[in-house]
Amino acid sequence: MKPFERNAANLIESLSFYGHATGKGCIEESGGVRLVASGVPYSVFNIALLTSPVADIEGELERRIQLAGNWFRRQGLSWSFWICEDHLGRRAARSLHTIFDRQGLLCIAESPGMEAWPLPPPRRPLPPMEWRRVQDAPTRQAFTHLVSVSFQVPFSIAEQIYSREAAWAGELEGYVGYVGSEAVCSCGLVESDNALGIYSVSTLPDWRRKGYAESLMRQVLATRPASSCIILQSSRAGQKLYYEMGFHRVTRWFVFATPSTRP
């Protein structure tokens, strides 16, 4: 499996979380697209992804976007399309933003898909902290709060996604880092295809740039086989940290969404 394929496969597995998190969502595959609906009216939790490459056939990418748009419109949901540049032919890649613009979707994020194999030792002393897996009401509440603050998701939306016990019965595992009794950072973990995917990395503003997110990630990863490839998709703010941790870019992701929804 090529690095970008491993990155994409793990991301698809992680995003499937939203199809069962709320109890009112669903997941379907049709025409080269995986469709994940959370049932919550917030675009980044209703997701379309390519399940196979787009050849440079006239109108092929538009066809898949339209298929996804029709599906989400029937459900009355705002939505987003997450696309890996390595799934595109050259013509589609050159015209990517124009194609999505014609379909009424705006680019809200562009991020590198990264991996490290193996993860080198830390370059700085990391702060001690306690961490807990998300598996009860207090840890679900803490994870919800951290995601809401760090990713600027309205708490009422985040609560619908992350607060149900049944949401955490799938492949995505959540973790919360504590300093004393205060929950200060979070991360998620998905294991698939001999890879460990890191997601939902967040730190409260007053605790940032002190090493807490890295400390949490490393402690969680230390419980897994050291031979596993570690992958993630970085936000712009997190890129410096991940490069310093030993990650390198293997692909690039774009997120396009229906207008008037914050990323």
Overview of the structural elements:
This protein is α+β, with helices and mostly antiparallel strands and 263 residues long. The protein has two domains: 3-112 and 253-257, no CATH class; 130-250, Aminopeptidase, CATH 3.40.630.30. Helix content is 32%, strand content 29%. The chain is built from nine helices and eleven strands. Helix 6 packs across helix 7. The mean pLDDT is 94.
SSE arrangement:
Blueprint (H helix, E strand, L loop, with lengths): L2 H13 L1 H4 L5 E5 L2 E5 L8 E5 L9 H15 L5 E5 L5 H5 L1 H7 L3 E11 L13 E4 L3 H14 L4 H8 L10 E7 L2 E11 L2 E9 L8 H10 L7 E5 L5 H7 L2 E10 L6
Key traits:
eleven-stranded mixed beta sheet, alpha+beta, 2 domains, single chain
The total domain count is: 2
The end-to-end span amounts to: 30 Å
Order of helices and strands: HHEEEHEHHEEHHEEEHEHE
Q: Rounded to an integer, what's the Rg over CA atoms?
A: 18 Å
Which range does the strand content fall in?
25-35%
**Uncertain residue segments:** none
The number of helical runs is 9
What's the CATH H-level superfamily name of the largest domain? Gcn5-related N-acetyltransferase (GNAT)
CATH C-level label of the largest domain = Alpha Beta
Main sheet characteristics: 11 strands, mixed
Short synopsis of the structure:
This protein has 263 residues and is α+β, with helices and mostly antiparallel strands.
